[in-house]
Amino acid sequence: MATPVDVSQPSETSAPAEDHGHDHPAHLAHHFESPQQQFYSGKLGMWLFLVQEVLFFSGLFCAYAVYRANHPEVFQYAHQFLSVQWGGLNTAVLIFSSFTMALGVRAAQKSQQGLLVGCLAITIACGFVFMGVKYVEYKEKWQHGLLWGTLYNPEEHGEHGGEHGAVAHDDTDHGADSHGEDAGSAAAGHDETTAHDEEGGEAAANADSAEDTATEGAGEAPAAAEGTATDAAVPITPATAKGSELAPPGSAPSGTVPAEVRVEAGEHPPEPKNVHIFFGIYFAMTGLHGLHVVVGIGVLGWILKRAMAGEFSSDYFTPVDLVGLYWHLVDLVWIYLFPLLYLIN
Amino acid sequence: MADTHAGHHDDHPQVGHVVPVWILTAVWITLMVLTLLTVVLAQLNFGPFDLLIAMGIATVKATLVCLFFMHLYWDKPINSAFFLASFAFVFLFVSMAIADTGQYKDAVEARQVDVPVVLHPDEAPAP
């Protein structure tokens, strides 16, 4: 029953019983002239799928690019909550898994069954390690309220609770009830309105930042923070705030404190507006990528099972090759995600 | 290209290209070195070139993966052509979107100054 035709499924289905009388390899589907044609067709099909994957991810990369182009300060602020160590570890793990995958394809091409099984197993293990690290990272974000949209409430959690939270909650009566975590954001919005009114709008962002820093500094006892607080108080006056706006951030205009100084003084840089959008983008991009890793683990498991059954050899290794291509693409996406999300200066 | 190997040896596939282990290993080591490099360079401040450098290194890494891990170096050129075409379209997509958003950036910002973002309208204190 030469059923039409799962290219990847060799042997049984195209059993010779009612075949067309010529002898051909068991894995060759009847609508292909030769194993070569079948191989190159399958490969082209896989590449077309990868093209689709690139375009699929590009929507999120586009969202990233547009938002970063318009609000670089959000990215500069928020990336400090991502751990370069974890991200770097995951980069190394994925690159290593790509390496073992490539070795696996080579083993299949050379009919080295044991090596193929070993390489596939290591690749799958790397996939699990990657997801494990992602779990640790996600859990940490979750615990600190560093999430998307309305779930973004860092004030309620961890070290930030002592700084922003205390100030914000004084302004409202929601501190203790179940909606307490929401109150912080709302109050922050309110504060901003006031600031805008006083400064006449344009310089508000800078003034906000300075205020934040000042309150943080006051909240924390250390001597270093005190210096920061006084320094940061400078740009609150409209004149200096205006001056700082003319110069690009970080270029240390006279009369204002460049962002680096405040950071070096042991402070978090002041929080800009709409940080939750960074985490929306972060979770969407890494989430979609993580989903691809999970799917990759699945198909690799399927390939591993078939490899253990001895289905692959130098005569027929197409499925190994094509799944390998998919796995490398997942690696490719991460190669861009890592610097874009974790390594912002 | 790859077909030239056919039939030389039992263990040689009729199709595809068997990449030597030393090439795969060299590519892997290069990728790791480049990863380290991009992490180190990210600690330094090159101003506007930061992103350019990071993306440049990422593109070199991606090219290595494509050429050698994904066999494009030995493959039929049509696969590379399709894959590169996808990036051409991504470039169009992203660059047009950025150019577009740049056109009304000022208007949006001017508006945002007066309209604070309130995540939870119900919870907002009375003005």
List the topology elements:
The complex is a heterodimer of chains A (345) and B (127).
Chain A: H1 35-70, H2 72-78, H3 84-109, H4 113-143, H5 158-170, H6 180-199, H7 204-219, H8 223-233, H9 238-246, H10 259-264, H11 275-308, H12 318-342
Chain B: H1 21-43, H2 49-69, H3 77-103, H4 105-114
Helix pairs in contact in B: 1-2
The count of strands of chain A amounts to 0
Rg of chain A is 28 Å
- Gross morphology of chain B: elongated
Strand element count of chain B: 0
Q: Hey, roughly how much beta strand do the residues of chain B contain?
A: under 5%
Provide the domain count of chain A.
2
Number of helices of chain A: 12
* Derived structural class of chain B: mainly alpha
Q: What is the averaged pLDDT score of chain B?
A: 83
Helix coverage percent of chain A: 55-70%
CATH topology of the largest domain in chain A: Four Helix Bundle (Hemerythrin (Met), subunit A)
The helix/strand order of chain B is HHHH
Q: Largest beta sheet of chain A, briefly? A: none
Largest interface pair: A-B, 76 and 68 residues
In the CATH hierarchy, the architecture of the largest domain in chain A is Up-down Bundle
Distance between the termini of chain A: 61 Å
Query: What is the average per-residue confidence, as pLDDT of chain A, rounded to a whole number?
Result: 72
Indicate the CATH class of the largest domain in chain A.
Mainly Alpha
